[in-house]
Amino acid sequence: MLTRTIVSIGAIALTACAATASNAQDNDASFAAGYGSHGRHVKVMIISMFAPEGQVWLDHLGPWESIPVAGLSPDYPDVHCNKQDICVMTTGMGHANAAASTMALTFSPRFDLRHTYFLIAGIAGIDPAQGTIGSAAWSKYLVDFGIQWELDGREIPAGWNTGYLGINTTNPNQKPPLDYKTEVFQLNAKLTDAAYALSRNAVLTDSAQAQAARAKFSYAPANQPPAVIQCDTLAGDTWFSGTDIGQRARDWTKILTDGKGTYCTTQQEDNATFEALTRAANAHRVDLSRVADLRTGSDFDRPYAGQTSADNLLNYQAQGGFVPAVQNLFAAGNPLVQEIATHWGEWRDGVPQR
């Protein structure tokens, strides 16, 4: 009896699984029938990392259709698309969430992303030597700060200025062999230049609190109003604050880009997101030449003169940069998004000559 019961339960379970699989296939088939054999066509996919970054787009460009995608973060299970074929997804914060959600998106049968432009758009810490809170930075290089060896800073060898060094190197100034293949990525400079040209005169949001925080710096551009700029971004799941570690961020960017890149923003996700897109590109599901990266400064990565690094980190919210940074994702990013969506005939086959 027990055996028969188990068999019966197994049969019921298999029937249920078959029904579930059939329903899923039916759903995918009906979706594909509505949007083409490869899924819904998307002109621009905006990739945000947490709710406020995505919400600023949802507030401005609706109405939206919510499309559930298997494998996305349970906190953000839907991709939102509008009638312009502009879509917004939110990955969840950090390397792991960014990679997992981006992979789920790009391998979903619900979308045809072969001609899609991707805009990675999020807030970040910013180097006061390159920008200020509220500034919007378009990047040509994505550099991973986390893939390094680290010695305790209290025990570094004589003559070294940092405890960080590339993996399988012998001093902090050597370029590592890039065995991970995700340490540095170069984006399509033509697309980055186009994005900058379209947005360079955008009117950016500011706040009195951010202005007061900037005024504590004695030099530009830290103490100037926010602007749209071009410089590069550094990814690492560990937040940092400090002049010395900030200098390592500058140096590491120069090392990995052979002197071509300039560090200015620090965030957690972008190398992971781009590697997931790379896997999809290898499967002919996306085009890596259509990826743009925009980061807006929400707080300084190092203290002003007389401030401690601990105070800069622990009280980062007092800088007042969060709201301007979120708002400026849309202010600086939307000119590119609208240019692509409204002039699709010029952009479908690649970045147009201008």
From TrEMBL:
Keywords, A to Z, come to: Signal
What GO MF terms are annotated? catalytic activity
Q: Where on the tree of life does the source sit, at the highest rank? A: Bacteria
> Mind telling me which InterPro entries this protein's record contains?
Nucleoside_phosphorylase_sf (IPR035994), Pur_nuclsid_perm (IPR009486)
Name the PROSITE patterns on file. Answer: PROKAR_LIPOPROTEIN
Q: Enumerate the Pfam families for this protein.
A: NUP
Residues of the signal peptide: 1-24
Provide the GO biological process annotations. nucleoside metabolic process; transmembrane transport
Keyword check for Signal: yes
Protein name, entry field: Purine nucleoside permease
